[in-house]
Amino acid sequence: MWNYEKRLQYPVNISQCNPKIAQVIISQFGGPDGELSASMRYLSQRYTMSNRNVAGVLTDIGTEELAHMEMICAIIYQLTKDLSPEEIKASGFDKYYVDHTLALWPQAAGGIPFNACEFQSKGDPITDLFEDMAAEQKARSTYENILRLVKDQEVADPIRYLREREIVHFQRFGESLRLIQDSLDSQNFYAFNPEFD
Which of 46, 71, 85, 97 is the most exposed place for a label (fewest CB within 10 A)? Predict the structure, then answer.
């Protein structure tokens, strides 16, 4: 179904290791508002989306979120590759290192492992699209928090790009919600459904 291009959606070229920043950015890999959660949320919701155009939006954005996860992993890898044991200990990266060495493993900045309970797929178009819009805003907020902490432009530039994409996704989900709402009628639960009354 997908064609993989062997390039990142936005270039990541970090010349200086910084495990302290990597520990913050890792939340956008496996944290509650990260790219892994986003991709799984949208790619799961598309199957039960009643409107095929909106299902297409979910597929498009879910696929793009996989590309964003790849960028986040590239950032973390470049910030941590070639660390010495002394740098690992001094930076506080030693707890992660003990369990994962310098491999990529999805977790939040606080160390909590990735968990699918962090996102929802309800099968209800209105519920799912509100979930998606909220997820994009939470991801945007997380990227803004990261940008407050990151001063290195080599790291901040791709993070800014990812933040901008969260705004675009929020807008696309808003358009999708309006499309679904415009098609509501008296047989739909949101207007009136005798089965629930």
Answer: 85
